[in-house]
Write a structure and sequence with these properties.
The chain has 13 helices and 30 strands. With about 625 residues, it is of the alpha/beta class. The strands form 5 sheets. An 8-stranded parallel beta barrel has the order 1-2-3-4-5-6-7-11, surrounded by 7 helices. It has a 6-stranded antiparallel β-sheet with strand order 9-8-28-29-30-27. The chain has a 6-stranded antiparallel β-barrel with strand order 15-16-19-18-17-20. The longest helix is centred in the C-terminal third of the chain and has 22 residues. The termini are far apart.
C-alpha cells in the first residue's frame, strides 16, 4: 500500500510542534542560512528539538536549503547540511545542483519546486541524478501529475494549499530586477502583488492600476483522493511565513480530508506517521489568512485564478450592506458578528477598505472603526474572525498513540504490559508478596481507572485487561507510579527504535543528458557557483552563462515565465474561450507598467505561457 504524507510549514519550533500535534506527518523548516526565507531561520539546536518531538510519532522533519549559492557559500552550506543530519532531520530540500557535487549526508534529497519541476522530462532527470523526491510545479494539471506518477519511481510532492507564485518557480527574476532582492536566494519582495497598468503598443489603456499578476491562494482540499491515485505521496501546505493560527487551521483541515481517504480506502493507502489526532475545533480555511481560493490549473485553464482588485487577505464573504445610517450599517448576513471582527469591502473606486467591528446591537446594526465609503449593496468580507481565532488559541487538540495495558499475576509476580497499535510493547515485572484484594469488583474499578490514565503523555489507553480470579492489592500511589514507569519505558523504546531514513535513490547516472538536450544555459539555468557548472557540464550543458544574481548588468532580460496569461484573461486567446468580451483595436505587443518600470509581454501560444521581459522606455 502507498503511504500518504501531510506536510506542514513552520517558521519556528513552536509552530513546528503545533503542526505535528495537529496531525502533520512531516514539517519543513528553515535553518539560519540558505533556507529560501530570509525573514525566518532557526538554530540547529531548535531544529534538533523539533525532530525529537516529531519522531515520537514517526513523523519527519525536512530542512530547507533551497537557495542558490555563490562560491564563497559552498563550504558553509556543506557544513550546515551535516549539522542538520546530526540534528536528526529526515531529508534536505535543495535547489542548487552544486550541492550534488558534494559529499552530502546519507539522508533523502528532495528537489525543491525552485528547481522548476514542470514536466515529465525534468522529473525523470532529477530521479536519474539522485533525488528521492521531487516537489512538483504548482501549474501542473491532474493529468500531467498522473502521467509523471506512472512513468517515474521518485516520490512526488504537490502543493495543495497556500500562496501561489505567478511565475514558474525558480524562473522569476522580477524582484531582483526591481529591488535587488532575489527570489532564488530567499528575499523575494513580491513585486507581482503590486498594481500595474496594462497598455498596448498604441498606448491604449486596457487596465488601470490593477493587480494583474496577483493570484488567489491555492486550495485543493476536494482533490486528495485523485491526487493520491495520480501518484502524489506528499500533500504540501505553503506558508513558512504564516502564523500559528493559519498552520493549525490548514493542518487540521487537511488532516480530516486525508483521514477520510485513509478510512474509506484503507486497502490502497496508509498514513505516513503514527498517532490519532483529536481536533478540538472545526477547521475552516476561509477563516484564516487567504486571498480567496482557486484550484489553479488542476483541471483546466480558467479566469477565476486572480484577484485584480487587491493582493491582500479578504477572508470569507459574509453578506451585503442593506442599509446605512450615521456611523452604523446593517448587513444582510447569516453570520454572527462580534466586536473585534475585522471586515473589509471594495469602495466605489474599487480600493479595499478595512474596518474593525466595535459594537453590534440587538437588531444587527454594526458600528465599526470606519464607515467612510460603505454603501448599500457593497459586499462585505470578514478577514479576521475574532471568535474563531480565540477558539484556536484556547483549543486543546491532542495527538495520541493508541495502546492497551494488560496485567498478569502469577507466581507472586505482577506483570504489566503496554502494547501500542503499531506492535511496540514493553513489560515490567514486579516479584513481590502482594496480598489478595478483598473486594474484586471495587479493586477492578480502581485498577482500570488508574491504568487508563495517560495524562500529557503521547499515549491513549483504549483498554485494560486484568487477571481472572483474584487480584493483587496494590496501593493507589504505587500503581500510579508503576503505570508512569511503564508508559515512559515504552516511549523510550519507541524513540530509540526510530531511525533516520536512508537515501534510497543511490543509482546515480552522472552522464544522463539534461532535458531536451540543452547545450547552452542563459540566466534561467540559475548557475552561480563552480560546482553547479561542473554538474551541468557532466549532463551535456556545455555553455553556461552567469545566473541572474551574479550579473552586473541585469537589464533587458526575461524576468518571468508564467502560465497565467493576460491575453487569455482579457478575452483575446485564440485557443481557449473565456466568455470575456475583448477590448477593441488592440495593437500588440502589450506592456505592463508600474511607476517607472515597464515590462513587455510575449505570448508563447505553443506552450501556453506568457513571458515578461524587462523593457525600458528607451528601447521602444
Amino acid at each position: 500500500m502507498k503511504s500518504l504524507e501531510l506536510l506542514a510549514p513552520a517558521k519556528n519550533i513552536e509552530i513546528g510542534m503545533s503542526a505535528i500535534n495537529h496531525g502533520a506527518d512531516a514539517v519543513y523548516i528553515g535553518p539560519k542560512a540558505f533556507g529560501a526565507r530570509d525573514a525566518v531561520g532557526n538554530s540547529i539546536q531548535d531544529i534538533e528539538k523539533l525532530t525529537k518531538h516529531a519522531h515520537r510519532y514517526n513523523a519527519n522533519i525536512f530542512a530547507t536549503m533551497n537557495t542558490l549559492l555563490f562560491d564563497n557559500e559552498l563550504e558553509a552550506a556543506h557544513k550546515q547540511a551535516w549539522d542538520l543530519y546530526h540534528a536528526g532531520v529526515d531529508a534536505i530540500i535543495i535547489q542548487d545542483m552544486g550541492l550534488l557535487e558534494m559529499d552530502l549526508p546519507p539522508i533523502p534529497l528532495h528537489a525543491s519546486t525552485q528547481t522548476h519541476n514542470y514536466d515529465l522530462e525534468k522529473v525523470e532527470f532529477l530521479e536519474k541524478v539522485g533525488f528521492d523526491r521531487v516537489v512538483l510545479a504548482r501549474e501542473l494539471s491532474i493529468k500531467q501529475i498522473e502521467d509523471i506518477g506512472k512513468k517515474t519511481n521518485v516520490e512526488l510532492e504537490a502543493f495543495v494549499a497556500g500562496a501561489l507564485c505567478v511565475s514558474l518557480s525558480g524562473q522569476c527574476y522580477m524582484s531582483n530586477n526591481v529591488g535587488d532582492r532575489s527570489a532564488n536566494r530567499g528575499a523575494c519582495g513580491q513585486p507581482c502583488r503590486l498594481p500595474f497598468d496594462l497598455v498596448d503598443n498604441a498606448g491604449q489603456m486596457l487596465a488601470n492600476q490593477k493587480h494583474l499578476l496577483s493570484l488567489k491562494d491555492l486550495n485543493l482540499e476536494d482533490y486528495v483522493l485523485p491526487l493520491a491515485r495520480a501518484g502524489v505521496k506528499s500533500f504540501k501546505i505553503e506558508g513558512r511565513l504564516k502564523d500559528e493560527a493559519y498552520v493549525k487551521n490548514m493542518v487540521g483541515n487537511f488532516r480530516k480530508r486525508i483521514d477520510f481517504v485513509l478510512d474509506k480506502y484503507g486497502n490502497e493507502f496508509v498514513s505516513d506517521s503514527q498517532g490519532k489526532t483529536i481536533l478540538d475545533f472545526e477547521p475552516a480555511p476561509e477563516k484564516t489568512y487567504n486571498r480567496g481560493f482557486s484550484d489553479y490549473f488542476y483541471n483546466d485553464r480558467h479566469t477565476e485564478i486572480v484577484n485584480y482588485d487587491t493582493p491582500k487577505a479578504i477572508g470569507d464573504k459574509i453578506g451585503v450592506v442593506k442599509d446605512v445610517k450615521a456611523n452604523q450599517y446593517l448587513i444582510d448576513t447569516d453570520k454572527t458578528l462580534v466586536p473585534g471582527d475585522g471586515l473589509c469591502f471594495l469602495d466605489k473606486h474599487e480600493k479595499l477598505q478595512g474596518m474593525k467591528v466595535e459594537h453590534v446591537d440587538n437588531d444587527g446594526w454594526i458600528k465599526t472603526s470606519l464607515v467612510m465609503g460603505v454603501r448599500v449593496g457593497a459586499e462585505i468580507f470578514r478577514n479576521f474572525d475574532q471568535q474563531f481565532n480565540k477558539e484556536l488559541k484556547a483549543e486543546k487538540t491532542v495527538r495520541k498513540i493508541e495502546a492497551d495495558v494488560e496485567m498478569k499475576w502469577e507466581n507472586s509476580t505482577v506483570s504489566l504490559t503496554i502494547k501500542d497499535i503499531y506492535g511496540n510493547s514493553h513489560t515490567d515485572n514486579y516479584k513481590e508478596a502482594f496480598e489478595v484484594a478483598s473486594n474484586r469488583e471495587k479493586s477492578e474499578q480502581n485498577m482500570t481507572k488508574s491504568l487508563k490514565k495517560s495524562g500529557n503523555t503521547i499515549f491513549l489507553i483504549n483498554s485494560v485487561s486484568l487477571p481472572k480470579g483474584n487480584l493483587p492489592f496494590i496501593p493507589g500511589g504505587r500503581l500510579n507510579q508503576m503505570r508512569r514507569d511503564l508508559i515512559d519505558a515504552l516511549e523510550a523504546k519507541r524513540n530509540k527504535a526510530y531511525k533516520q531514513p536512508a537515501r534510497w535513490n543511490t543509482e546515480i547516472d552522472d552522464t544522463f543528458p539534461f532535458p531536451k538536450k540543452i547545450q547552452k544555459w542563459d540566466h534561467h539555468g540559475n548557475v552561480l557557483n563552480k560546482l553547479a557548472r561542473v554538474f551541468y557540464a557532466k549532463h551535456g550543458v556545455t555553455e553556461i552563462e552567469e545566473g541572474f544574481e551574479g550579473r552586473e548588468d541585469k537589464s533587458k532580460l526575461r524576468l518571468m515565465t508564467t502560465k497565467h496569461c493576460l491575453r487569455y484573461q482579457i478575452g483575446m486567446c485564440d485557443e481557449h474561450e473565456t466568455f470575456v468580451t475583448p477590448p477593441e483595436n488592440v495593437q500588440f505587443p502589450l506592456y505592463l507598467k508600474q511607476k517607472k518600470n515597464r515590462y513587455k509581454l510575449k505570448f508563447n501560444c505553443k506552450d501556453c505561457v506568457m513571458t515578461i521581459d524587462d523593457s525600458p522606455e528607451e528601447l521602444v
